[in-house]
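Researcher: I'm comparing several assemblies side by side, and this is the next one on my list. It has 697 residues spread over two chains. Same procedure as the others: predict the full complex and return the structure.
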Amino acid sequence: MNLLMIIRVAFRALVRNKMRAALTMLGIIIGVSAVIAMVSIGQGAQQSVQEQIASIGTNLLFVSAGAQNVGGVRTGTGDTGTNTLTVEDLDAIKREVPSVSMVTPTVNTRSQLIFGSQNWNTQIQGVSEQYPDIRKWTVQDGSFFTDADVRTAGRVIVVGQTIADNLFPGTSAVGQTVRVKELPFRVVGVMARKGQDQQGRDQDDTAFAPYTTVQKKILGSPRVQVAYVSAISADATYTAQVQIGQLLRQRHKLGPQDADDFSVRNMSDIADAANQTNSIMTMLLASIASVSLLVGGIGIMNIMLVSVTERTREIGIRMAIGARSSAVRTQFLIESVVLSLTGGLIGVLLGLGVSLLIPSLLGWPTAVSTAAVIGSVIFSAAVGIFFGYYPARKAAALDPIDALRYE
Amino acid sequence: MQSTLEIQTQNVGVAPGVLSKVDEAPVVISLDHIHKTYTMGDVEVHALRGISLEIKQGEFVAIMGTSGSGKSTTMNIIGCLDRPTKGHYFLDGEDLSQLSKDQRADIRNKKLGFVFQGFNLLSRTSALENVELPMLYAGVETSERHRRSMAALAAVGLAGREKNHPNQLSGGQQQRVAIARSLVNDPALILADEPTGNLDSRTSVEVMEIFQRLNRERGMTLILVTHEPDIADYADRVVVFKDGKIKSDYRIESPRNAAEELKLLPAVDFEDDDDDSETVVNEVAEQKEA
């Protein structure tokens, strides 16, 4: 008896019990579609991170105080009180590293902005006048502050769209005066809308003031947390990164044995960190989803065991008229594989459908992974073989005389 | 429907000299001092205590005996479902006593046909598919399988019933499907285990008529296990088992003729209760007779 005929026999046996076959497949259907949907969500998140990073620009470098190690142990960040990065360091970078075109320090603080009877708590970033060019972020109304404002620590401020909407509803923000910690600031510009960043934070809920102003008049501290550095081109990014590192080690008088007290990262480092987080999330979601595949497999085993007992007489008949044990075993194994594989294929279709619906229903980006589709189909076939083997062996081991007598 | 069968078998009757022909025929089955011992816990049960039996080609043998006499065990050994503990079993001259499980499955498939008391058809499977089953395991190709199944079903008078499932057929019809199934691989021997045990007396005669016809027209070797003496009377030879031994083995000089008996039975007693195809067949049959 050839395999094709055994497959036909197995199909006929399943068709005879349509309802049961459908319910048994449900476990696998849910498992496979969940895996595919989860991986699609993970991949979608990863893709959108990469798109955002590409839109920021690949010639951007981050210099921060304290050492930071992506994926490693040292995770010192700029705002833990380290004073290792100074404005003088940044001036030196601008002056002495030829592959660097622009530099801006950032000094962050949170504060209340008060306008008339309105007030708004927001992040205030102290930056240089080159910030909009480095971040490729345009000013919508008015203008950004100038290097004269930076030199004189002028009380000028540029607000994001969210602040403009909330503090100055219906009126133009430019030319108005807001108070920050009792100090009046003149609003000179409103940034263009930028939307959420990859962590979902509203980038428009930020105000920009000259870093000198923030250091002297708001924080009262000369330290710099992070600096954005723009290399002259994307190709020069790596050179710039290395040269900045050498310069800062020299300026900080670090010996060959000393570890860096600063860190210089490029966008691909940042992307790596974001991707790592995302892939951990994806793995987590997919492994939770594959638990239901496992449960589905146990369901198949259960039904196949019931089926073997219930069809003992049928097995006896088949053996009496000349079915070898191997033919009976193959028949039941194929029944189980057909169940799981059909379930897997339906699950793939359902998973693809869900992946297509999620962006419009939940607003999350999704990207279907071919590997996940192929993987879950193969996995569901493997589930069928694994969980079908024991019942099939049980069927094949039956004695035809006893099986025929079974009531 | 069996009117058709009557026509087919009318001229056959009991051919004179059948027995002498059988005497010259080759031996199909030879049991040589067969012992079978079962161990149940600490107790050894001797189901068979040295059975020797020869059955020649074209014989119609009834095996009789009370339950526990060893007739079912003998059937299982002849049917290659079980192996003797001691002794030798030859089928067509081949020693089958020590074959492996797979080899016995192949023998059952190609050389033996089974008919059971409980019909043992696959439920929710059409008559045609049931009959095709042994050929499926023999690897017969589709068109040939179909042709042979249709022919076998026609031979047992079930033409036009191919698509019916067992639950749409009467007991007699189901048993005829089972007989068709036992025939399709052209076996050396058909084993019928209490084939009329679940049937009423008229249907029993119908089934016996088919067996007699297969035996006389095709020279098919038949072994029939029964505990009803009047069913055994349709056979040419009776072997009686008692306590794991053969108690007696005798020929019936003039067996009952099922075809003749059917003619005498009133047709109103017809067991098939349903559709018009019966009447059509009957009408056609009557026209032919006329």
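Model: For your comparison table: The radius of gyration of chain B is 19 Å.
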